[in-house]
Design goal:
About 15% of the residues lie in helices and about 40% in strands. The chain is built from four helices and 17 strands. It is mainly beta and about 260 residues long. The radius of gyration is 22 Å and the shape is globular. The model has no long low-confidence stretch (mean pLDDT about 90). It has helices spanning about 85-90, 95-110, 155, 245-255; strands at about 5-10, 15-20, 35-40, 45, 55-65, 70-80, 115, 120-125, 130-135, 140-145, 145-150, 170-175, 180-185, 200-205, 210-220, 225-235, 240.
Amino acid sequence: YFFIPLVRAKFGDEFVYLNEGTRFNEPGTSCNDQAYVLSRDGTISNINVAEGKKDRVEFDYLVELDKDGTAEITFEKRIYGVSVGNFRKQYNEMLPEIKRRQLLEIVGSWGNGAEPVGELHADTVSYPAVMRYKARVRDYALIQNSRMHLKLPTRLTHAVFSLGDDARENPMFFAKSTPSSIHAKIIFPDGYSLWSMVPKSVCWTLPGNLGRVEIKIDRSKDEKGRLVLNATRNNLHLSGEVAPELYPTLLEYNR
């Protein structure tokens, strides 16, 4: 049945759906994207939000390493769609001391040797909404026998599925999540030219029509001749139910 009255208006080249969200929401976004709608003339169709206004989140990491393993990290998060409204509300109403505390907590997650460089930037005016900060992290990379060892940012390597036990007797339902893209550019100091171990590029079509995960790894050199590792992960998680006999397959994706 249809229980939410919406008003559709033409705004430029796209449609805007009124009677949802708050004053912080970006015009053209809708939490009812792809939902069925009953028009006044009795026709039934789908709400189809413009591509640039659909829910999506992008993460960018720029990691520049010194010869002692210290890293200067620039992080940027771009938010599209309905979540922009929550982001704008949160940071427009946030007190400066709370914002500063949040920055310290975020930077502290990089390790004990991490400290912020500058302030937390939250753009609540432009679209997409943007959060940005810089951090300096001592001992981000471990140097042993002229080799530099480091981990990629956790968003690139986190598990594909949130699973519990190693076996399951009943079907498991997965809710749809916001599509995301994570990119990390890691710049090594002068003198590093060989790779001892690098993750491989993969592309997985997930079982049960649950979506797709793609990881791309490439290597290059910048204009200064420094070695550069680019790693990108694209996540598309759809809703669906998986039979218990497929559960071991899900575990393999996490490994």
